[in-house]
Specification:
This protein has 124 residues and is mostly beta strands. Helix content is 0%, strand content 49%. A hairpin with a 6-residue loop joins strand 5 (46-51) and strand 6. The mean pLDDT is 96.
């Protein structure tokens, strides 16, 4: 079983940047697709970004394309989400997830393990 712990969330002004990290323990993330999802208040959780196990393929939600970048360091068992040009609508709890499929996945149902989430709040 993979245990995931997110960090790096916080309060940032619109236009600013944050870098989220997701550290895995108990098992290596090599071989796992990794993804980021988010849930804003009163809304359903939604896909943000995904990266294949080798890091050669990525996918992004249209709302974050060109502003967010997902990356991974399998040696450090960590996945990152670099968030730039943040907008008020990016405010949400961000979740890290792992999928055994190994390839890019956008559906929540494809993910087997989830972290507890980290809050990102963007202010004006």
């Amino acid at each position: 079983q993979v245990q995931l712990v997110e960090s790096g969330g916080g309060l940032v002004q619109a236009g600013g940047s944050l870098r989220l990290s997701c550290a895995a323990s108990r098992r290596t993330i090599s071989g796992y697709t990794m993804g980021w999802f988010r849930q804003a208040p009163g809304k359903e959780r939604e896909f943000v970004a995904s990266i294949s196990w080798i890091g050669s393929s990525t996918s992004y939600a249209d709302s974050v394309k060109g502003r967010f970048a997902i990356s991974r360091d399998n040696a450090k068992n960590t996945v990152y989400l670099q968030m730039n040009s943040l907008k008020l609508e990016d405010t949400a709890v961000y979740y890290c997830a792992a999928s055994r499929t190994g390839v890019v996945r956008t559906s929540q149902a494809s993910y087997d393990y989830w972290g507890q989430g980290t809050q990102v709040t963007v202010s004006s």
